[in-house]
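Appendix B, Record 12. Input sequence as logged:
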Amino acid sequence: MEAGTPVASSADGPSCYSRVTNEWICGQYLSDRSQEIVDATVQHVGITVVSVLLGLVIAFPLALLARRLPRLESLVLGVTTGIYTIPSLALFPLLVPFTGLTPTTVVIGLALYALTILVRSQLEGLRAVPEEVRESAVGLGYSRRKLLVRIELPLALPVMMAGLRVATVSTVALTTVGSLVAYGGLGNLIRDGVSTNFRAELLTASVICVLLAVALDVVLVLTQRVLTPWTRGVRT
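Logged structural output:
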C-alpha cells in the first residue's frame, strides 16, 4: 500500500480514512500511522534545529564583520537578503548536484534563508549597546574580546533572541518545502495528503507543524528569560 493513500473499508465497516469516508479528523489514522507521524515530526525538528544552529554559526561572524567594517555592511546585508529572494523551488535543486538528495541539502538551504533575519538582528543587537557602556569597559581595561563576551553580547541578547525566534518559526514552516528532495519532515505528509486528497494526513501534519512552531518559540522565550534575568521586570 502506498504510504499516503487512504485504506479501503474493512469488513467491520468503513474506516474514517478509507476511500469511502475520507474525514478530516480521524483518531484511527493517528493510531494506525503513529510511527509514521512520529518519524516525520522527529525529522522535522532535527532539520529545523540543525538549520537554525548552522545559520547562527554563519550569521554571527558576518554581523561582527559588518559592524567592524561599515563599508562592507551593505554588501553583507545585500547578499543575505538576496539569498532569501531565491525561491526554494530553485534553491534546493541548485544544491542537489553538490549535496545530493540528502538532509544536508535542506539544512544548507534553510540555513541560508535564516541569514536574512539572523544577521540583521545580531547586528542591530550589537549596535543597541550604549556607547558609554563600551567606553566605560574600555576604560576599565577590557580587551576587545572581553568587551564582546562580557558586555556587548549580554546586552545585545534580547534583540538577538527576538531575531532567533522569528528565524526559528520561519524555518519550521520552510522545512516542509524539503519534501522536494524527500526530506521535509511533516512536509512529506502534507505533500502526500495534498496529492492523494488524504484529509486526515493533511490536517494532522499541518496542525503538528503549527504546534511545533509554537513549542519552539516558547522554549526560546524561556531560554531568554533564563539568560537575561535582569529583563524580567521590564516591559518592552
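The CA atoms of residues 38 and 54 lie 24 Å apart.
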